[in-house]
Each structure stands twice: as C-alpha cells, then as structure tokens.
Amino acid sequence: ESECCGFGGTFSVRMPDISGAMVLDKTRALKESGAHEVVSADCGCLMNINGSLEKQREALRGQHLASFLWQRTGGAR
C-alpha cells in the first residue's frame, strides 16, 4: 500500500520502463498477498493495475471503492 503503482498520469508515458517495473512490483505483491479482491479509490491506479494483471493473464482484478460499496449494500433502495 505504501508504494505507487507507477501510473502517475504523464509519468507512465514519459518513463514507461520505470512505470512498468513499478506496476509489476505492485501486482506481484497483490498476488503474493493471497487477496481475492483489490479495492481502490484511484481510477488511474485501477486502470494500470488491471491492465497489468490482464497482460499477465491473472484472474485477480481491481474494483473502484464506490462500485464495491454499491454492490455490498444492494445499490439504490
């Protein structure tokens, strides 16, 4: 949780090799944690992490906090 996923907007475009290494570190840590779900409030991080997991053909995916809460509370009532 204390390290960036490597997206950072233009950082990922200007420094793709560093950004790619950072997201691989992040996804490796997520997989090694044994997590079944990943929840974040940062859409940029989710896009980067999910893209990396998809390229790695991993089933684990991240979900936005608002969507997570919406599903868990049954949506609008």
For the largest sheet, list the strands in their spatial order. Answer: 1-2
Rg over CA atoms, rounded to whole Å, is 13 Å
Run of helices and strands: HHEHEH
Number of domains: 1
Strand content: 5-15%
Count the helices. How many?
4
Average pLDDT value? 91
Distance between the termini: 33 Å
Number of beta strands = 2
**Helix amount, in percent?**
55-70%
Written overview of the protein:
With 77 residues, this protein is mainly alpha-helical. 57% of the residues lie in helices and 8% in strands. The chain has one domain (10-72). The chain has helices at residues 10-14, 16-33, 43-55, 65-72, and strands spanning 38-40, 62-64. The longest helix is centred in the first third of the chain and has 18 residues, at 16-33. It is globular and about 45 Å long.
In short:
57% of the residues lie in helices and 8% in strands. By secondary structure, the chain is mainly alpha-helical.
Supply database-style keywords.
single chain, 4 helices, mainly alpha, 77 residues, 2 strands
